[in-house]
């Protein structure tokens, strides 16, 4: 651990005591997503000369969001449930140069945070959203989430889930995100590449990462990673599920005007206008 | 093609700063808020349409880009309050103006702003309730201002009573929020938000603007920086300055460590917040007084009701020789208990006219119960008291 | 009606250097659906911002007159539009002036000019309180740029009509 190349981006110790290890359970996918993201950020800093100070990590509440609590050696914000994207909007209003990465979970993003998710994509604010989708509410003990598949038993669906679930990628695309991708924690290089593309993309990049929760799914992490590999299929721009497997890949990669770029035109226009005065 | 600038009747605007020129202007209360915010250096506005605050938001949508700021209409009030947190930590002063139902929605964000010590200003143009309520005047949120957020944080809440004060109090709110690193609430009413009056704007050099202390200015480098330490009001490093600041929304140690929870840590963290605001409570006077010498009775009021109360008290003096003292609370929270006790001697009856069923009556009673024989509420729901109405209640009580 | 109050208040505040407060109420809470705009003007500080007893009442509809006439002091100035206000109780208690502001507005170009006509008529009754130039400046602040001249003309017509009426009354 002491020699981990990404350790320089973490705060193992603070002035008032240790911060690592994280509170994540052994085998949790969150740690992997953090690792992949830091690798991507590391490459962006060296290849694209992006300043480390410009990176800003924001999260809401949940296991996934915990990554941002006080472990990162970056500017970060561990905010309130579902509101990471609203806080991100504010940060970008103050300073459009921030490279914002939002860590969130399926519940934080699509349930309580659903409205802000839709509008962030619609506005196309300059964030890269990493949604760690484990199909349930982990921190609070394994309840139903909007991404829980029909029929699944959780602590609040003891008779099986009667509801249909979201396809978060379709939701992001329909709402207007110009970059949409889905991977799993078993696809490290792809996640790293997508994060780099996301940060480079001017606008909302949505990256869903199917992530294992070994504790609530009652499976070993290795078994879950194998399941991710076996039950997913890489597709291109065609979107429909094949052979009963979950489609993964880069579903969308286009360019759209980013919110701050559009608003800057309004600022210029407003400042050049004709001032009414009364003399 | 040159576009026409600003709203109809938009007053003299300085070409350079785009702020209103010093001198006399005629503004609506809601408009005066925005002009005050811009003078205070606020450059981010987020809001959601809600009567009777909408004109403030519309004025912000015109004026903020004119001065190089940014405006956004969010999808709801919760989002608006969260934008304020993000913008403030991004280094820019931020404002939202809402009304009572929106104020309810913002309470969680206020709670996290208190614990994270985020400077920001929320203005509530109160309207009656409960529920959807109506779009007339009210003072029904004054208790919610103090206790509406979950948890036990302190808060500063101011109460303007004129359009001139909507301008001045907004600036004061920003100054207090920056000085004490806390969200500040301005509790206004629909009456003042919609009314139009003259506003005199002094030369900008004469207006005091306070900005948050920065660790850079104090020579504290990133490696030695404690985001909630160094002083009772911690210097605030913002995102993007190389300080690797971890914003957290729960009780923490001074360096932001949230792992080592203990009830003692919890207590210490919250207690420091209260101590911080108590210093503020005692630091400046927040009472307006008149007719206090030899008064037999008192009228204690706040917000726009204080204008009616002043006229009523003056008339009672003139027409009936009734010696009623007048005290106006310019600040509701922290409640100025000590300041009140310092100036109130023995009186017979204390009248408290409010546009609610009796809310500030409670801390007033706590503070002055031993200095009077009785405390009488004069409520008026949904409409501003008229002087005749207040006087009829006073005369009836003193018969 | 909301605009008349705003223009008047602005004329007093900005161009006459007096203190003025303008408030308005509309909808059901303004007693019967009539929309009301109030202006209080004073050389001194104004405390209570609403009108207690009015010195002047401008009534442009019967409903408005019915609701707000009790607020006018005895001997106060009542300016009304005879086209829509037919019934005035206790006529002799007040100084009543009739100006068909709606009709004159239509002659000029439409009901949207009624406010300026009414203001012109009102000016004739309170020239000691406000200068014509102040009102005209306030009008041009508050109407679309391309209608400033028409509104000024509407103001003048209202003023002349009212003067003519007063002239008749003095015979």
Give a structural overview.
The complex is a heterotrimer of chains A (279), B (399) and C (171). In chain A, 34% of the residues lie in helices and 18% in strands. Chain A is an alpha/beta fold. Chain A has one domain (23-258): Rossmann fold (3-Layer(aba) Sandwich). Chain A has an 8-stranded mixed β-sheet, with helices on both faces. Chain A has a two-stranded antiparallel sheet with strand order 1-2. The termini of chain A are far apart. Chain B has 399 residues and is of the alpha/beta class. Chain B folds into 3 domains: 23-206, 3-Layer(aba) Sandwich (Rossmann fold), CATH 3.40.50.970; 222-283, no CATH class; 287-398, Rossmann fold (3-Layer(aba) Sandwich), CATH 3.40.50. Chain B has 13 helices and 15 strands. Chain B has helices spanning 29-39, 54-66, 77-89, 100-105, 107-116, 142-147, 163-180, 190-194, 263-283, 305-320, 337-343, 361-368, 387-398; strands spanning 23-28, 44-47, 70-73, 94-99, 120-126, 156-158, 183-189, 196-201, 246-248, 287-290, 297-302, 324-329, 331-333, 349-354, 374-379. In chain B, helix 7 (163-180) links the parallel strand 6 (156-158) and strand 7. The model of chain B is unreliable at 1-11 (pLDDT under 50). Chain C has 171 residues and is an alpha/beta fold. Chain C has one domain: Pyruvate-ferredoxin Oxidoreductase, domain 3 (3-Layer(aba) Sandwich), CATH 3.40.920.10. Chain C has 6 helices and 5 strands, in the order αβββαββαααα. Chain C has helices at residues 2-15, 62-68, 101-108, 114-125, 132-142, 148-169; strands spanning 19-25, 36-42, 54-59, 72-80, 95-98. Chain C has a 3-stranded parallel β-sheet, with helices on both faces. The longest helix of chain C is centred in the last third of the chain and has 22 residues, at 148-169. Chain C starts with a helix and ends with a helix. At the A-B interface, strand 2, strand 4, helix 2, helix 4 and helix 9 of A face helix 2, helix 3, helix 5 and strand 9 of B. Strand 4 of chain A pairs parallel with strand 9 of chain B.
């Amino acid at each position: 651990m002491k020699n981990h190349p990404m350790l320089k981006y973490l705060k193992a110790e603070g002035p008032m005591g240790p911060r690592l290890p994280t509170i994540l359970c052994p085998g949790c996918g969150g740690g992997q997503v953090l690792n992949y993201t830091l690798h991507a950020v590391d490459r962006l800093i060296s290849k694209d000369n992006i300043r480390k100070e410009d990176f800003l990590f924001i999260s809401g509440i949940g296991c996934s969001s915990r990554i941002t609590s006080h472990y990162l050696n970056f500017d970060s914000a561990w905010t309130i449930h579902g509101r990471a994207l609203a806080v991100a909007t504010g940060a970008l209003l103050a300073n459009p140069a921030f490279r914002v990465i939002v860590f969130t979970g399926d519940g934080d993003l699509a349930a309580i945070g659903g409205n802000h998710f839709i509008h962030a994509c619609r506005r196309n604010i300059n964030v890269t959203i990493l949604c760690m989708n484990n199909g349930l509410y982990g921190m609070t003990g394994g309840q139903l989430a909007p991404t829980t598949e029909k029929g699944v038993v959780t602590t609040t669906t003891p008779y099986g889930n009667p509801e249909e679930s979201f396809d978060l990628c379709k939701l992001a695309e329909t709402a207007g995100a110009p970059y949409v991708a889905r991977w799993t924690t078993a696809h490290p290089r792809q996640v790293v590449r997508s994060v780099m593309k996301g940060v480079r993309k001017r606008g909302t990049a949505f990256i869903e990462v199917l992530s294992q929760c070994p504790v609530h799914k009652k499976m070993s992490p290795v078994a879950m990673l194998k399941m991710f590999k076996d039950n997913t299929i890489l597709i291109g721009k065609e979107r429909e599920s094949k052979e009963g497997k979950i489609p993964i890949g880069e579903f969308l990669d286009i360019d759209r005007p980013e919110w701050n770029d559009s608003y800057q035109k309004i600022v210029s226009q407003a400042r050049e206008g004709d001032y009414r005065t009364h003399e | 093609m040159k576009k026409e600038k600003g709203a109809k009747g938009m007053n003299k605007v300085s070409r350079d700063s785009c702020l209103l020129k010093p001198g006399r202007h005629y503004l609506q209360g809601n408009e005066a808020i925005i002009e005050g915010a811009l003078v205070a250096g606020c450059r981010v506005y987020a809001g959601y349409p809600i009567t009777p605050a909408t004109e403030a938001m519309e004025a912000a949508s015109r004026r903020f880009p004119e001065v190089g700021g940014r405006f956004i209409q969010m999808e709801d009030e919760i989002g608006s309050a969260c934008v304020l947190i993000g913008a403030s930590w991004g280094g820019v002063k931020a404002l939202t103006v809402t009304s009572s139902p929106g104020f309810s929605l913002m309470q969680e964000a206020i709670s996290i702003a208190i614990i994270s010590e985020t400077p920001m200003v929320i203005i509530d143009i109160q309207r009656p309730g409960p529920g959807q309520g109506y779009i007339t005047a009210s003072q029904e949120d004054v208790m919610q201002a103090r206790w509406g957020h979950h948890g036990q944080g302190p808060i500063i809440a101011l109460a303007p009573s004129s359009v001139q004060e909507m301008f001045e109090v907004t600036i004061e709110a920003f100054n207090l929020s920056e000085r004490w690193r806390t969200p500040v609430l301005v509790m206004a009413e629909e009456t003042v938000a919609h009314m139009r009056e003259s506003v005199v704007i002094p030369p900008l050099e004469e207006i005091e603007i306070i900005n948050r202390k920065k660790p850079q200015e104090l020579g504290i480098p990133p490696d030695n920086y404690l985001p909630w330490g160094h002083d009772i009001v911690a210097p605030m490093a913002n995102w993007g300055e190389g300080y690797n600041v971890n914003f957290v929304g729960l009780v923490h140690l001074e360096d932001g460590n949230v792992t080592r929870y203990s009830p003692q840590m919890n207590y210490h963290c919250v207690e420091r917040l209260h101590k911080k605001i108590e210093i503020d409570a005692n630091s400046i006077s927040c009472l307006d007084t008149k007719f206090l010498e030899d008064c037999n009775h008192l009228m204690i009021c706040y917000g726009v009701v204080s204008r009616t109360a002043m006229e009523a008290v003056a008339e009672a003096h003139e027409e009936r020789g009734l010696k009623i003292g007048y005290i106006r609370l310019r600040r509701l929270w922290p409640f100025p208990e000590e300041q009140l006790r310092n100036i109130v001697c023995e009186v017979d009856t204390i009248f408290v006219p409010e546009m609610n069923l009796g809310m500030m009556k409670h801390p007033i009673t706590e503070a002055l119960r031993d200095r009077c024989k009785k405390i009488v509420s004069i409520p008026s729901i949904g409409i501003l008291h008229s002087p005749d109405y207040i006087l009829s209640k006073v005369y009836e009580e003193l018969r | 009606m909301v605009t008349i109050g705003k223009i008047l208040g602005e004329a007093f505040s900005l161009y006459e250097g007096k203190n003025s407060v303008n408030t308005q109420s509309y909808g059901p809470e303004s007693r019967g659906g009539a929309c009301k705009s109030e202006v209080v003007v004073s050389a001194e500080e104004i405390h209570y911002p609403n009108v207690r007893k009015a010195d002047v009442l401008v009534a442009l509809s019967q409903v408005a007159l019915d609701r707000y006439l009790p607020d006018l002091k005895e001997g106060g100035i009542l300016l009304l539009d005879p086209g829509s206000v037919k019934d005035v109780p206790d006529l002799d208690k007040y100084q009543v002036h009739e100006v068909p502001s709606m009709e004159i507005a239509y002659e000029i170009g439409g009901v949207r000019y009624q406010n300026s006509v009414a203001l012109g008529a009102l000016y004739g009754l309170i020239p000691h309180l406000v200068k014509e130039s102040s009102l005209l400046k306030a009008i041009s602040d508050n109407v679309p740029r391309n209608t400033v001249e028409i509104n000024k003309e509407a103001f003048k017509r209202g003023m002349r009509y009212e003067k003519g009426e007063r002239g008749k009354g003095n015979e």
